[in-house]
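Figure-free illustration: sequence to structure, shown twice.
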Amino acid sequence: MPVQRLELRDLEFVGSDLDRPECVMATRSGDLFVPDKRGGISIVRADGRTERVLAKGAPEGFLPNGIALLPDRSVLIANLGPTGGVYHMTPDGTLRPKLLEIDGKQLEPTNFVGIDRQSRIWITVSTKLIPREQSMRKGYGDGYIILIDEKGPRVVAENIGFTNEAIVDPTGQWLYVAETIARRTSRFPIRQDGSLGPKEVFAEYGQVCTFPDGFAFDSEGAVWIVSVVSNRVIRAMPDGTQHILIEDADPKTLQEIEEAFQNDRYTRTHLDSGGKRPLANLSGIAFGGPDLKTVYLGSLFGTRLATFRSPVAGAEPVHWNF
């Protein structure tokens, strides 16, 4: 089904006093879960109230980024702060380490954590370089993916162009991965033992300043990705066609940033430029609402979630009934 392009005036906003709601977990109950820069999560309740749960005893510099909602409504939190790692936080804020090292080495700042329908945990590290900005250059890729299952934690993919979200698709057969600096969405077949087969490219984004971050699947097999910097929402179909549904950017500024990227002058300042726009540097997307046709957009600098109605329903996420 075609989806029409939207203008900023078509969007509404929900939630209040959010702080860096980088990704969004939507549930059948109507509650929305987002990370909170202050050191925990915020919950936008179905009735519009916003509640905050801060972690107790968090490590110095703790910066929640990707989160995964569990059946008891506790959460796994990827720590983008300097000490990295993944933590488990109960609904009362009790925080405990889940994974702090791999192969005897401390995890670098950790981008994302997600679960699948087999209760496996997928974790991404965007780069081994610290500070991370050193890796934000064309052609560079040292990101990796960790799987935790009944065998324990292990690295299952490497050399990725700034690993961002990694989500198992609705069929359970593929792990899709946003490669932000490589500007593509890739996917890996998942073998019976949890290992990954050869990577293949699902979509490459040739538009000026499309840097894919968060993404979600719809019921027709398309992937909806959001782009930092350009504040775009793009629907990528399995046949390769792509449609820009939303864009919030100044064309001249985007061209300047694109030239910087192509000439190895791309910096954190360029990445953060999208935060000056109303959509505040889009970084996350989720389908919700009773019919899974309400789209919610997370961002790096927002204090609310942008939302709009889609004619196409989203695919039911693994945490939908939690």
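We now fold a second protein in the same way, so the two outputs can be compared directly.
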Amino acid sequence: MHTLISTDELDERRHEPDTIIFDASYYLPNEPNNAAALFLDSHIPGAAFLDLDVVSDPSNPLPHMVPPADLFARTVAEFGVGTDSMIVAYDQRGIFSAARVWWLFKLFGHGLAQVASRKP
């Protein structure tokens, strides 16, 4: 399986019941955009918003540290993610924060994670 999939392939797969699409957009605190608000305004149909702050270690004072495995598993399970789910992450910036979500899934052993990218 390839790590990157095209938007055309995503469009073909997005109706499959085992495909879970995450808008993993994130903007730095000094940027004027709000990822959650932008998601509500426009997103890929069927996508869910996955906030990087929610899948970070809440006990660590540093931002965006890797969460404990059980916290990550519980959080993504709330979105219906199972071991056989095809995970696709994208963000509204190209490939910025989606790569972090992809990496977290890989880190915790999920072998079916991909990042959607626009055609070159």
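Summary for the second example: The chain has one domain: 4-117.
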